[in-house]
Specification:
The protein has about 170 residues and is mainly α. Helices cover about 85% and strands about 0% of the residues. The mean pLDDT is about 80.
């Protein structure tokens, strides 16, 4: 079963990368919609580092919430695994799928770096708007639009490449 499990692990990591790219794209779209809020905070005296820290905290909390929901679904899947095994295999084998500290630690080890990696780009893009243009136009600034478009296009290309490989 080793090669089959290795293939399953590779496919699941590919799917995880696709999901992470989708979440990064959603965070970037959300950051673009918050340009006026960020511009007001910067104009009121908030530092860029403080705004980046806030946006990264939001992305880490979202990632931890998603990881927790994933662990909850995994525990349900583990409990229902014997229902999907053939009866003769289930009767003579003692397969166990534990959700132990190692599994939870690996989940945390994968979740936090992805949250930071995919949260830092939207945070950096959002934290440097053209204050005058954003505040004057009510948040409809085109400044930085090309950078947002390139980043979003890059995420979509990466997502499609991983999907094709998987």
């Amino acid at each position: 079963m080793g090669p089959a499990l290795a293939l399953l692990l590779a496919v699941s990591l590919g799917v995880q990368l696709i999901v992470a790219a989708n979440v990064a794209n959603l965070l970037l779209a959300r950051a673009v919609s918050r340009q006026k809020e960020i511009a007001i905070r910067l104009a009121a005296g908030a530092s860029r580092a403080r705004l980046i820290r806030q946006l990264l905290t939001e992305s880490v909390l979202l990632a931890l919430l998603g990881g927790g929901i994933g662990v909850l679904f995994a525990s349900w899947a583990v409990d229902s695994m014997p229902l999907f095994l053939p009866t003769e295999l289930a009767a003579r084998s003692h397969l166990e799928f534990p959700l132990d500290a190692t599994t939870l630690g690996l989940t945390l080890l994968l979740t936090l770096p992805q949250a930071l990696l995919f949260g830092v780009f939207p945070a950096l893009q959002t934290s440097r708007p053209d204050l005058y243009a954003v505040l004057k136009e009510g948040g409809r600034s085109t400044q930085g639009g090309a950078a947002h478009h390139r980043l979003r296009s890059g995420l979509v290309v990466t997502e499609m490449a991983v999907a094709v490989v998987s």
